[in-house]
Amino acid sequence: MGAQSAGLACGAVATESEGPIKLYLGSAPDCWAAFGQVLEKDFADYSYAKNDKLSGDACALQHPDSPPPQTISSTTVHLALFARWANET
What we know:
By secondary structure, the chain is mainly alpha-helical. It has one domain. The chain has three helices and two strands, in the order E-E-H-H-H. A two-stranded antiparallel sheet has the order 1-2. Helix 2 packs across helix 3. The longest helix has 20 residues.
């Protein structure tokens, strides 16, 4: 097992590893892999489908990157969508 490190923004303890990450998100490869597992569940079980967009918004808000304009715009949209969902429930 590799060295342990905190996720870049979310604070999760993750194994340092090589792997894909999402552009404009400050996530470690392990965080991005975990999000992929959440998406698998969302798509495999129809009862989770209503939360699919919420999962993406929550992930994006937990993993902001340093503030280039794309990250600020993306975080603003995800926060607005998350707030809309919170106000509807």
